[in-house]
Model the fold of this input.
Amino acid sequence: MLNLNTRKTFGIFKDPFTDDVVTADDVYLNDASRFAVEYLYQTAKAGGMLALVGESGSGKSTVRRLAIDRWQAEGQKVRVIIPRIFEKQRLAASAICDAIIAACSTEKPRRTLEAKARQVEHILTNSSRSGFSHILMIEEAHDLSIQTLKYLKRFWELEDGFKKLLAIVLIGQVEMKAKLDESKNWEAREIIRRMEILELEPLADKKEVAGYLDLKFSRLKKDRKEVFTDDACEALARKLQRQTSNDIVYSVAYPLLINNWARKAMNLAASMKVKIVDADVVNSL
Done:
């Protein structure tokens, strides 16, 4: 976090990287993230299945919130179903049924899984005929068991005529790609072959890092260039690059990492009694 001395040095009263997304206007979108939001929106609208994959702090939850915000802003009749079990390893078909029933009706769940399945189909059909679409969103989906993954196909197959009753969006960290690898989990091939995978990309270069910081400081009515110089943004972009054993350079400039390194740079500058972060400060980290 930004310490008190740093806030005094730069004349800011609030950390620009804490609670920094309150509305859709607070989200920095480049071409890749715009595509991710639109892809999630369209897949869910069409009743498809999508796995949204990304590193910790890459903005997965933000993309989800943007899609939900858009549905609400457009006045669409969409029911988003989010199971609230924290231990996703224990999330089973029965709990998913309970979540659907609670989100889409006032009925009490039946006792047996078979009865719940019939109840879910009846509720979703009636809700669909009333004009609603339904989206099952599961966060931390990398922790789902293979058995639960197999069950998800049964939920996705629910339909009323040619209309799918339930879209499915799985949101998880990059290890979910291994779980959705048919060669490793052959028994889940039915859903794996139907599941589209979209991986969130990091910010690509100094221009995007500068644009990201521009937005963060504009929320505080502060010009980014009064805090971070252009060459500091370039140095920060380089700081967030990695290199493979084959000398391939790639970026890890995800929002959370940018936030953390920007804070470090500001705190260091303040401790050095420097009132602006330049490349020298960033390179000193």
In short: The two ends are 15 Å apart (CA to CA).
